[in-house]
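Page 47, continued from p. 46.
Same chain as before, 285 aa.
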Amino acid sequence: MIRFFGQRLFVLLVRLVLVAILLVIAMELGYGVLGNSDFHVWEAGFADPVIPLLELSGSSTWDGIIPLMKKSMLVAGLAWGATVLVGYSWGILAARLRRFKGHYLLLVPWLVMASVPGFWWVIQVAIFSYFEWERPGFANEIVVESGPDLMQWWNAVVVALPLSVLGVSVQMRNVSERIHEEAGLPFVRGLHRAGYSEGEIFYKNILRRLKGALIKHSDDTLPLILGGLIFVEVAFRFEGMGSFLIRSLQSSYFPGIFVTGLWMAGIIGLAALIRETIVHSMGDD
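Result:
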């Protein structure tokens, strides 16, 4: 187990190094070659005058970026947590009711919400907040000086909501389809002929056989959520890594682009490492 974890951790580090190299190459090609910029990625000194334009708080770049990471981690955690909990539970229930055509009742609300492009749905919510709250985005000027910062959690929940809708619809479909494929195998028909009930076949046989395979889908939606984080943060004017990436792109702030890309790759890689370790510990490779 320790050996397997060490091997996967080494693979994760190698992947992060490759991502870092690709980010440097992409930035140099995009700005230096195609954009005819006078600056290069390896010239770190040019970035200092840009930091005030990004409105980073703190005496250094890291002092300003770390709070943005925490805010985006909260949003991504809420969105991914809701995706896993709702996506798996509704996906399993939809697969259970597929034989009775009841899964359509579960699919309809998520398909309707998922059919609306997520970015434009967020724009509509942002416009509503502008007219209702008379300010674009959130009331960022409200600062909680004592007690729990419920405003921060509320803002994070609102930003995570459209990401959760998109993630749940994808997760639910993946789980439901995987279970449906298993339910179509010949051994299921044999269990029916042997007199086993629907519940015994589904819960004690199909789900038990699929527990490792279903866990492998746990982080499928994470890249989608982190990618959508960029759009929802900009639409809601939420101060996080997504909006920071856009400002860095607009200001040609290479360190900001590099750190944001590496941060997203690190989260995806860490989630994959945890998932692979869990699956390996279950003996389902």
